[in-house]
Amino acid sequence: MSDSPKPQPEPRSAYKAFRTISSRWMDNDVYGHVNNVVYYSWFDTAVNAHLIERGVLDIHGGQTIGLVIETQCNYFAPLSFPQAVDAGIRVARLGTSSVRYEVGLFAAGQPLTAAKGHFVHVYVDRASRRPVPLPAPLRAELESLR
Description:
Layout: E1 17-22, H1 36-53, E2 64-75, E3 84-94, E4 98-107, E5 115-125, H2 136-144
Antiparallel strand pairs: 1-3, 2-5, 3-4, 4-5
């Protein structure tokens, strides 16, 4: 057994940037709530949209791309269609070529996360798929999310 404390919901103040995501009819499963795999899609959407909007990630022509090497999620309260979801993001760890993003998912208007998780991107050269140092503009944006 792990000696780690049980994960707990977090407040909005624990996150640096937010994006509202609309749940969709197809996100619900037969149990009437959003299926667990959708949460991972929301993590990707929140982080990548933020980086694209800030001009530090070019998904079509950039030489550096992020590949997910680890992901995890804890669930605290159900979300369901037609709820809007606020995704809070922050950077927990920043290495030479990798970053650990942490994402909290909130039901619109709620003070605590319904779910929270993380994923680690290793940034690589698009062609060779070998790790490369984070480009300076990307690193600066990631620093602002710490």
